UniProtKB/TrEMBL annotation:
<comment type="similarity">
    <text>Belongs to the bacterial solute-binding protein 1 family.</text>
</comment>
<dbReference type="InterPro" id="IPR006059">
    <property type="entry name" value="SBP"/>
</dbReference>
<keyword id="KW-0813">Transport</keyword>
<dbReference type="GO" id="GO:1901982">
    <property type="term" value="F:maltose binding"/>
</dbReference>
<dbReference type="GO" id="GO:0042956">
    <property type="term" value="P:maltodextrin transmembrane transport"/>
</dbReference>
<dbReference type="GO" id="GO:0055052">
    <property type="term" value="C:ATP-binding cassette (ABC) transporter complex, substrate-binding subunit-containing"/>
</dbReference>
<feature type="signal peptide">
    <location>
        <begin position="1"/>
        <end position="20"/>
    </location>
</feature>
<protein>
    <submittedName>
        <fullName>Extracellular solute-binding protein</fullName>
    </submittedName>
</protein>
<keyword id="KW-0732">Signal</keyword>
<dbReference type="GO" id="GO:0015768">
    <property type="term" value="P:maltose transport"/>
</dbReference>
<dbReference type="Pfam" id="PF13416">
    <property type="entry name" value="SBP_bac_8"/>
</dbReference>
């Protein structure tokens, strides 16, 4: 992390009150030591703390988010320590309400100037957003994946972190099976052999699954392993799905064989793989980064390790897909003085390494900021460390409509539970996704992958 000339000041954490009925707000009366920078900081994009906001006159804005009050409050406190004339009211909304209330608020005249974004709701929000007041080429110098967010030469939000799937394994079960670190599999064939050693049966009944993918095979296998075989999720036009491809059929057949032929798990054992692992029933699962924090909090008694997802031949086109955790959105209908604060806050967030590290660790995402790729704090998190070597070989398909996951889950369930053959199930998923996406403006960005063919 770059050295900064800083002055330490005592700053009171401001008390926040919700100005609307849209949610509760976070408040704190504890005092903290806040390091206030006195010189510009950042990489290509730089933040100058000496520049006054709103000519030093008082200004107040709302920041809407869901469920991470303390994390957001800390960055607010650091920002307002630099700009004491700025008040940022943190308004927390439950996730299930957020995506209904936010578009309605932004459509009116009193919506929040600043709001948390999730790219799965891109189509619901993008028309309400102002482009970031930062040159695109500067963002591209500092952050990975910026080009996938460029719309008509402008960027409205980018990723601050990248999340994907890795293998979580139970260390106690691993040791009891006689396995060591040298047995960490690199290929799917090796993975299956390891899983066989981890599987325990009582007669024909599984009492410990070597690998469990029940309930989320669509997220962690079907919508990602196709890349290992060199095929995208969408065809060349970027709109037509490609889910009945040869690669997808191979992945689906591998999953069927894992249960039916290799018997390293069962569709009838551990109906939710994440819960089954946490409850000590399954030895390995593939989960995305957020699972690391779930294990640490919900199933803290599980001694687990993490390794990178295996590949078919050790030399994949890409390892898997990823999804980004998004930066804030700026409300284009907010008053100009509020928009100026919101734009400045986003720049501060992007330049402030402490905030970047805090947010990525909280979300278990690998930093999109290039200068933090070898950050010591980041690499202490094993779910992030395993990604560090090949993070540039993961693909973001773009903000896919939710129907893609839903229809692929239905296809897998038909295969596993309803006796539908693979070709028929995937052909139906292909047709269903085309139908469900008929009115969508989605355009795949797979062609922007650094190693695209």
């Amino acid at each position: 992390m770059k050295k900064k000339l800083i002055a330490t000041v005592m700053a009171a954490t401001m008390a926040v009150t919700a100005l609307t009925g849209c949610g509760s707000s976070s408040s704190s009366s504890a005092k903290k030591d806040i390091k206030v920078p006195t010189e510009p900081f950042g990489d290509t994009v730089k933040y100058d703390p000496s520049v006054e906001i709103n000519d030093g006159k008082d200004v107040s804005i709302d920041l809407w988010e869901w469920g991470s009050d303390e994390l957001f409050q800390e960055i607010i406190d650091r920002y307002t320590a630099i700009h004491p004339n700025v008040t940022i009211n943190l308004v927390d909304n439950p996730w299930e309400d957020y995506w209904t209330k936010l578009p309605l608020a932004l459509d009116g005249e009193n919506g929040p100037a600043l709001f948390n974004v999730h790219n799965s709701y891109h189509e619901n929000l993008i028309n309400y957003m102002a482009p970031l007041d930062i040159p695109v080429e500067d963002l591209e110098q500092d952050f990975n994946g910026v080009n996938a967010h460029v719309i008509d030469g402008k960027v409205y939000y980018i990723d601050y972190g990248m999340m994907t799937g890795s293998v979580y394994y139970n260390k106690e079960m691993w040791k009891e099976a006689g396995l060591t670190d040298d047995d960490i599999p690199k290929t799917w064939d090796e993975m299956i052999e390891v899983a066989k050693k981890l599987t325990i049966k009582d007669g024909d009944k599984i009492v410990q699954a070597g690998l469990n993918f029940n309930n989320d095979f669509h997220q962690n296998y079907l919508l990602g392993l196709n890349y290992q075989l060199g095929e995208n999720l969408f065809q060349e036009d970027g709109k037509t799905p490609n889910v009945n491809s040869d690669a997808m059929k191979k992945v689906m057949q591998m999953l069927v064989d894992m249960y039916d032929k290799d018997q390293i798990g069962s569709k009838d054992f551990g109906e939710n793989c994440a819960d089954s692992f946490g409850q000590g029933q399954s030895a390995m699962v593939i989960q995305w980064g957020h699972y690391y924090n779930t294990l640490k909090t919900t199933w803290s008694d599980i001694d687990f390790g993490v390794f990178e997802i295996p590949t078919f031949d050790g030399n994949p086109y890409a390892y898997n897909r990823y999804n980004g955790e998004s930066t804030f959105g700026v409300n284009k209908k907010a008053p100009k003085d509020q928009q100026a604060v919101a734009q400045d806050f986003v720049k501060f967030f992007l330049c402030d390494d402490e905030s970047q590290v805090d947010f990525n660790l909280a979300m278990s995402t690998f930093p999109a900021k290039k200068s933090l790729a070898d950050n010591e704090e980041i690499l202490k998190n094993p779910s992030l460390k395993v990604l560090s070597e090949h993070i540039d070989h993961y693909i973001w398909p773009g903000p896919m409509p939710s129907c893609v996951e839903e229809d692929m889950k239905k296809a897998g369930e038909d295969i596993f539970y309803n006796g539908v053959d693979i070709d028929t199930a995937l052909d139906k998923a292909q047709a269903d996704i085309i139908k469900d996406m008929k009115s969508s403006s989605f355009q795949s960005v797979e062609n922007l992958y650094e190693f695209a063919k």
